[in-house]
Amino acid sequence: MQHKKRFILVFIAILAIGLCTAGRPAPKPYTILIYMNGSDLESDFGAATTDLVEMLDSGLDSRNANIVILTGGTYRWQNDVIPAGDCVIWEIKDGWLYEVTSMGNVSMGDPTTLRDFIVYGMDNYPADRFGLIMWDHGGGSIAGFGHDEKFNDDSLTLHDMWLAFEESGLRNSKLEFLGFDACLMATIEMAVLASDYAYVLIASEDLEPGDGWDYTFLGALNTKPQMNGITLGKTIVDSFMDFYGPDSDELLSLSVTDLTRVQPVMDTMGELMAVASNRLKSQNGPSFHQLAQKRGVTKTFGEGSPRDNYSDMVDIGDMARHLAEYFPHEARAVQRALHRCVVYNRHNSDVDLYGLATFYIYGGKSEGTHSLRIYSDLEMDANYTAYLHHFFNGLVNRRSGRDIIPPIQSELVLWQPLNNNIYRMAGLLQTAAPADDLLWPQLNGRPISMYSVATTARNRLYAVPAEINGRDGDIMIVFNRCYPQGHIRGVRYFDGHVIQKGYDPIEPGDKIAIYALEWDFSRDTIEKNWHKGDVFTVTDGLRLTWSVAREGYRLGYRHTGAYRDVEYTQPF
Question: Global pTM?
Answer without folding.
Answer: 0.92
